[in-house]
Design brief:
Elements (H helix, E strand, L loop, with lengths): L2 H19 L5 H13 L2 H9 L11 H17 L5 H22 L11 E3 L4 E3 L12 H27 L6
Antiparallel strand pairs: 1-2
Helix pairs in contact: 1-2, 1-5, 1-6, 2-5, 4-5
């Protein structure tokens, strides 16, 4: 999945939480929820910049889901921030939503990294680290990815216009 789909899904989770439990999520917790929904793909920037093939490794694992919120919690504790617990939970929920979407919409994720077993909702399979990413794919594969990316951009644009219509943002 692409960025807007991850953001919209995390936003819907946050809104669902607010609706069901009748509690407001703070602006800072919203930031970490939405940031968490994208954070797992930060390794893709390393791939793109340095030509590595580390995308969907550590940052798509249960280990990362545990370590990242704990590091945030300890960092916010050192900074003496009051919202450390809610922000850490929000980051964890954002990361978890990312992993779940990738498990639903793709070939899976290495939940038990460094194991090379990828788990999705439709299959469990071995991932060969020598398999090139879509950056090295055929023209047909790139066209397929481009179509999904365009759909994702359309979702994001719709989301932005929704906020504009509801007068939550201005241009």
């Amino acid at each position: 999945m692409f960025a807007f789909t991850h953001l919209i899904s995390a936003w819907l989770l946050g809104k669902g939480y607010e609706f069901i439990w009748k509690k407001k999520i703070s602006h800072l917790a919203w930031f970490f929820l939405l940031f968490g929904s994208l954070f797992s793909d930060a390794d893709f920037l390393i791939d793109w910049t340095f030509g590595t093939e580390i995308h969907r490794t550590f940052t798509h694992s249960l280990l990362f889901l545990a370590v990242a919120p704990l590091l945030l919690y300890f960092t916010l504790t050192l900074l003496k921030w009051e919202q450390k617990k809610s922000c850490s939970y929000a980051l964890a929920v954002g990361i978890a939503s990312h992993l779940l979407l990738d498990m639903i919409m793709s070939r899976g994720v290495p939940l038990f990294w460094p194991s090379l077993i990828n788990i999705s909702f439709t299959q469990i399979g071995y991932f060969d680290p020598q398999t090139p990413s879509f950056l090295h794919a055929s023209a047909n594969a790139l066209q397929k990815v481009l179509k999904v990316a365009i759909f994702d951009m359309a979702l994001g644009t719709t989301w932005i216009f929704y906020f504009w219509y509801k007068k939550r943002i201005q241009f």
